[in-house]
Amino acid sequence: MESDSFGRWGHRDMTIDDYALSDRYTQEQTTSFLSGVQALARLPLEQLMADKNNGLNTAAFVSGYPGSPLGGYGDEVDRATSINADLPLRHIPAINEEHAATAVMGSQLVTTRADALHQGVVGVWYGKAPGLERASDAIRHAVLAGTGAYGGVVALVGDDPGAKSSTVPSNSTDILAALRIPVLVPGDPAALLELGRHAISMSRAAGLWASVRVVADVADGTSSVQLDASQHHPVSPERPANLLAPTGRVISPFNLELERELIEVRLPIALDYIRLNKLNRVTAGNDRAEVGIIASGNTHRQVHEALKRLGMQSNDDIASNGIRILEMAVTYPVDTSTIKKFAHGLSELIIIEEKQPIVETAVRDILSGAANSPRIIGKSVHHADPIAPHHGTLDTGTITTALRTRLSERLGDRLAPVAPQQIHHIELTVERSPFFCSGCPHNSSTVVPEGSVVGAGIGCHTMVMLGEPGRGGDIVGVTAMGNEGSLWIGMEDFVSTDHMIQNIGDGTYFHSGQLAITSAVAAGSHMTFKLLYNGAVSMTGGQTPSGQLSPAAVAANLLRQGVTRVIVTTDDTDRHNDWPTEVDVWHRSRLIEAQEVLAATPGVTVLIHDQPCAAELRRDRKRGRAVTPTDRIVIDHRICEGCGDCGRTSNCLSVQAFDTPWGRKTRIDQNSCNLDQSCVDGDCPSFIAVDTEPSLFARLTSRMFDRNGTPTRQTSTEIPPTEPPTPTASTDRDDLAIRLTGVGGTGVVTVAQVIGTAAMLDGWSVQGIDQIGLSQKAGPVVSDIRLSRGGAVQASRLGQGDADVLIALDNLVAAGANGLGVISPTTMVVGSSTETPTASMIAHPELHLPNSDDIESTLGDATDSTKQLWADAAQITTRFLGDATTANVFVVGMAVQIGALPISLDSLSEAIRVNGAAVEANLTALRLGRLYAVGQLNIDAPSSTTAEVELLDDVIGRCAEDVKAHSGTRASQRFLDTVQRVRDVDPDPSLDLTTSVASHLHQLMTYKDEYEVARLITTGDGAGASDSIADGKGVRYRLLHPPILAAMGVKRKLRFGPGWIPMFKLLRRARVLRGTPLDIFGYARVRKIERSLPGEYLELVDAITTSVSTLPYTRLVEFARLPDVIRGYEELKESRVEIFRTQRTAALAELK
Fold first, then answer.
1. SS3 for 983-1031, per residue?
2. For 309-344, what is each residue's pLDDT tens digit?
3. Of the given ranges (72-76, 850-854, 886-890, 1030-1034), which has the lowest mean pLDDT?
């Protein structure tokens, strides 16, 4: 094995032509652009390579549980291992963190056995802060047990100080210190590798675990890093010969000796290692300094950035102002000699750290009573005004303000003046927020019977607490992972409610949640666990839960645990055929019924909702591992009422409102649709199922929509053969700060990686951060990139006024704090004006996105308007490439061409190639963006995403013809007479009042009863979307649930194919019976209401026309638009009519 290992590792000088993403895992020496997580994935590989070069036969063992900010770590380790299949590295994802810790403990016991295959095993444990806390007992055992001289253990602890992806904020330093584990704190990916190697070396020397604390800004940070496995040359204290070997005998009386050795021998060795290797370093200043600043990791970088804002642009400036800085790479244990040496000669010592004053407390203890010790400024109770808050997160702005306050008395005018804060504000009617993927099981599975008390759980489904109020029930709270349901045990005897529904994900169930169910059974509770089984830990990257069992096996186990009843709801009742006989398997349409049945069942019951993760299912379909349905759902926009019921029912992002000549309607975005089809459960006859060929899937998902909701076909628009002129950079600066804003799930991070890689290939030093956090599908995503020729210390995250370039891949995100908060009058802005609906618009289709022109104008006023360029990138790329997925790269092409990105085309092209995704399409999109920037792209056609403006006479004529087709000539003439009467008295040149009356009187007079729906089906006015998808081959089926069939007990929609068209035509001709005694449909309550509404509205219109001179015009228009609330069918329409009638009564009273 020794002779064959690492055969593919080597040395590569970085050149554009032969750079590969895999270099980070295959090359011993190279320069690579990588994230913090990727640096950590390289760590065990690099250690094994170094051991090999030193003649050691070692292996590595990695185990843990995924959690942000280390959510993708296990996947990256697997990627690295697959590239180096001959490596003696084993990664075993654990069921939970404590099992992983014990497994890593076992890796250190290998060398105590005669049958050991290696001289040592490097152990790596990973988990986020809550996992560390729950695993603390297991880790405490492992720390006492010790580590091998050629093994060593490093614990990678993901901290989330801002609780971006956690239920509680965290700083794990105090817990790690309590466990007697040294804490190393890196500030960027390069430091992760360096300090990770030191952590392993320290662990080997001292025989104890070491840890690396990783925050999101470091894990999600990116950097161009000089990789060299051979450059780590630690100075290790001699390991005492009598140091106890690793042992699993952690039991009295041996454990007391282990404790003594840990405190008196191992920790002092660790301190020696810290001193000998100078891990805590002075990064600026000299012996003449009067003020000292101590900071660690990313905070240390923010301190340097803050001092730059205060006018100290270099280390020489810092020194000349009497300041020196100590970067504490190890925050526990604190080295006494380093602190005393650093503090010598200082009059003031400022300590800046997040959360608890851990370093400060240690420094105070060290300097307490020492002669001429400096005044210590931190968070201690000794000071009424702490240097930094005890809570939340630290950022460069906060640190700048704090340092200005402390230094102003000493430095005065030498500090740069406070930059004038520009206040920019755009009135946003909607904002982006994280949401479930299209077709996500949680969209429907988290719905509960009205009035239900619910416990939220850990996982993607936690976002139910961020969604529409009431949709997920009366949520009492969320608990730590694995404690789901225990809240109710302590509540149920003291409240009148007798039942609770507890959401629990399958990942949580296998992690620790099954014990929570056992606990509820043991307590005799009355509750229902809703086990959301989707087969993936989607929030952290879609991993398969460790220890996963089939849903049927889970059901059998639950029955053995003592639950009184199990019901399964599923989208596919035939998916499994091995359910226990005691288990009922129902279609998901009976979800509410199932919850009601279980609530009425005594004891602990379980509802298993079995439906695959939509995102993972989409990936499997693309890779041929899952069957792609042959039918797709579209909406006939003429029949659609735009009521939003399909959105409320499905809670799906692909159900999108849009404007048409007939008002605001709904369409299915075929590009994002994951074929869940729960939208068809909306109470509406507008749905069409188009049976297509499976091969059409890729082509259909690449289409945009025209103003009638019709997907635009792939065009034959030719791409100009001309090559744009070679771009010239707009600046020759040695540093550049770039911010990208976009929508989660659209490839923002990928674009940032392409830009960062290209810049590295051009010789820039690159530092970046991808601000993602909580599952960000549909939410705001921000990536920052800093380029530097000098490689100076920089904080990755941009602050106020920092952005030299704003690349707005989504203008709505750019219009919020993520964009406005970083721009300045010199910022260049390049962006896409494509309008993408938000999550809030699903249930509220009446909401509109802010006007793109207003966003661009405001950003232009606040930045360099002469260097601003916008385009509807999705529309353009769809027109030329038939695919909007390259829109982000199109914008990058625009930015490069106008000089906003000083990166060569060769490097950008190579970065796209090494990324490997849709290379030719992205390279073409890059060129299209460049052509657009210089006006060489023919895009004269108007945008296809916005309803065109019609002249009022055209609107009136079109509506009159529609009324005639609905009810005849007399009705049409009545419509025209009423509109003309309003027009005659309309006092405003805009004629908004007339337009509003015309559109809403038309709406009420053309109510969609059975005859009208049949007419619209047979005329096909709104079937353009289905025509495009059918493409002359697919068969279309109308999905209908007529009230008459519902009254007969039919509970679901039926499919009506082409053979029913003659029947629909017959029904259309039968509209002459409307309102007569022979009208069998007209006896329904809703039909009677519909017939009365035009008269009720005409009464309101008469009152409006007599008040045109007495009330404000805008108020009259508001009254004319009151029928806009009347949308939908059947019961929904009736409820909306009640709202209209209440508002109408109030309006008539005001008009008198």
1. HHHCCCCCCHHHHHHHHHHHHHHCCCCHHHHHHHHHHCCCCHHHHHHHC
2. 999 999 999 999 999 999 999 999 999 999 999 999
3. 1030-1034
Tokens representing 600 are 């009425």
What's this model's pTM, rounded to 2 decimal places? 0.89
Q: SS3 of 783, please? A: strand
- At how many degrees (to 10) do helices 1010-1019 and 1061-1069 cross? 130
Q: What are phi and psi of 914, to 5 degrees?
A: -70, -25
827 touches 803 (CB < 8 A) = yes
Phi, psi angle pair for 611, to nearest 5°? -155, 130
Closest by Cα among 971, 972, 997 to 984: 997
Task: Give the integer Cα–Cα distance in Å for 244 and 686.
Answer: 76
Residue 783 contacts residue 748 (beta carbons within 8 Å) = yes
Distance from the Cα of residue 1130 to its chain's centroid: 37
How far apart, in Å, are the Cα atoms of 1075 and each of 965, 1000, 1084? 16, 21, 11
For residue 69, cis peptide bond before it (omega within 30 degrees of 0): yes
DSSP for 187-253 reads SSHHHHHHHHHHHHHHHHHHTS-EEEEEEHHHHSEEEEEEEEGGG----PPPPPTTSPPP-S--STT
Identify the helix (H) or strand (E) that includes residue 183. Answer: strand 183-184
Q: Which two structure tokens, joined as six digits, stand for 553?
A: 């096996």
Closest Cα partner for 150 from 243, 232, 231, 51? 51
Identify which has the larger pLDDT, 292 or 444. Answer: 292
Asked if 997 and 1124 count as a contact pair (C-beta separation under 8 A), the reply is: no
Strand partners of residue 154: 124, 210
Which strand ranges, in their side-by-side order, compose the sheet holding 765-771? 10-11, 27-35, 221-228, 765-771, 780-788, 735-743, 805-808, 828-832, 868-871
Q: 988 with 603: CB under 8 angstroms? A: no
Among residues 766, 859, 746, the alpha carbon closest in space to that of 806 is found at 859
The residue behind tokens 């049958």 is 115
**Residue 223 in tokens:** 């950097």
CB-based contact 300:282 (threshold 8 Å): no
Give yes or no for a contact between 829 and 867, defined as CB atoms under 8 angstroms apart.
yes
From the number of C-beta atoms within 10 Å of its C-beta (0-12, 13-18, 19+), residue 65 rates as buried
What order of strands is seen across the sheet that includes strand 474-478?
474-478, 453-456, 500-505, 527-533, 604-610, 565-570, 584-587
Name which residue leads in pLDDT, 197 or 802: 197
Phi/psi for 837 (5° steps) reads -60, 155
Give φ, ψ of 508 to 5 degrees.
Answer: -65, -40
The 3-state DSSP class for residue 269 equals helix
Find tokens 């896409």 and name the residue.
832
The per-residue pLDDT for 793 is: 62
- DSSP-based three-state secondary structure for 538: helix
- Say which amino acid occupies 727: P
**Residue 162 Cα distances to 355, 603, 764, 1035, angstroms:** 10, 39, 31, 52
- 792 secondary structure, DSSP code: -
pLDDT of residue 691: 87
Q: Map out the domains of the chain with their CATH numbers.
A: 41-276 (3.40.50.970), 281-414 (3.40.50.920), 442-612 (3.40.50.970), 735-933 (3.40.920.10)
The DSSP 8-state label assigned to residue 1123 in this structure reads: G
Cβ-count burial of 432 within 10 angstroms (0-12 exposed, 13-18 middle, 19+ buried)?
buried
Alpha helix (H) residue ranges in 344-485: 358-367, 396-411, 442-445
Spatial separation of the C-alpha atoms in residues 153 and 40, rounded to whole Å: 14
Strands 153-159 and 120-128: parallel
pLDDT tens digits for range 867-891 = 899 999 998 998 898 878 899 999 9
